[in-house]
Amino acid sequence: MSRDRRYTVVGAGHGGKAMAAHLALMGFPLTLYNRTPQNVAAIKTRGGIDLKSYEGGPRGFAELALVTSDMGEALEQAEIVMVVVPSTAHADIARKAAPHLRDGQIVVLNPGRTGGAMEFSKILGDHACSADIALAEAETFIYASRSEGPTESRIFRMKDAVTLAALPATRTEKVLEALKSAYPQFIDGVNVLHTGLNNMGAVFHPALTLLNAGRIESTTGEFQFYIEGVTPAVGRVLDVLDRERVTVAAALGIRARTGLEWLRMAYDTTGENLVEAIHNQPGYRGIMAPRTLRHRYLFEDVPMSLVPMAALGKRYGVSVRGMDSIVRLACFIHRTDYWRRGRTLDKWGIERWSVGELTRYVNEGVVPRGTR
């Protein structure tokens, strides 16, 4: 397998450090970008990242080719750009990258959450980026990982399969072929509506955090988030949200995977219901709850996952009372308006599109006349 493709990982948080280290250990020339120099100063000084992992997983000291906070420098030699930042930062990354992208590069959002590639593409267009890039998004992040120090990262588990789609879908095969030597786990996700509406973080993260809010605040997260936090009552709420997500997808002509099907595909774990399946997933063991409610499970997954799903539901005639309830609770707790701050359809430029127009856009890249 070729190891000569040059990767740039954008983001040096929990996920970015794990991905950068693993790619470097696989032998790929790796550039790590983070907008804040002090956040990667120790990595730059050491020249790499110490990676720990599950039994049989990747581990060792990963030497990086370049560590930088200059976007131009980060993209200069990159062939594949893996964007691993909270989806709330996608718009900012698109604006920063727009002047530096060039023809032939591949940009992958890891993950896109819901509508990430559509938002990223619109911002590139708004900033007159004419580069012919292949833009794609993963349905979920391929690693369960955590940063364990300035130059240390740990991978708890890698998913067995993760769907990925390009925008438009006619470019998905090209992206999968380019990624195959590093990530054979990526498989065809049909289109970005499929990846966005199969976003299980929207179902799991906000509700699980909010319904354990008292325990999180009283213990500062000293309990296993999935193993102890998913009780039968919490599981029933997750079931409601999952049904709404699947129904929104159906309104767009998409057969979305249920939560149980997703857990089987991603982790090869099964159960009679979501509670059993989550408890049967060994990769969730040891993952502790957030230490505070000021966490990406709320400030990212609500505006970037639940809000766009609910917005699509309301636009195309689906009742989304469960999603609406979770969004409103998050608004109350964070004293903000996630409906205003989130990915609403106008931020994609699709607020007046029919289902047919939206489908043609994600499949073929055709923008209806006079709508943008």
Features:
372 residues; alpha/beta; N-(1-d-carboxylethyl)-l-norvaline Dehydrogenase, domain 2; 43% helix
What does this structure look like?
- This protein has 2 domains: 7-197, 3-Layer(aba) Sandwich (Rossmann fold); 201-361, N-(1-d-carboxylethyl)-l-norvaline Dehydrogenase, domain 2, CATH 1.10.1040.10.
- It has 18 helices and 12 strands.
- The protein has helices spanning 14-25, 41-46, 71-76, 90-97, 116-126, 172-179, 192-197, 201-211, 213-219, 232-251, 259-267, 274-279, 296-299, 301-315, 321-334, 338-341, 345-348, 355-364, and strands at 7-10, 30-33, 48-53, 60-63, 66-68, 80-83, 106-109, 134-138, 143-149, 152-158, 162-167, 186-188.
- The longest helix is centred in the middle third of the chain and has 20 residues, at 232-251.
Mean pLDDT: 95
| Main sheet: strand order | 5-2-1-6-7-8-11-12
As a percent range, the share of strand residues is: 15-25%
Poorly predicted parts: none
CATH architecture of the largest domain: 3-Layer(aba) Sandwich
Shape descriptor reads globular
Number of discrete helical segments = 18
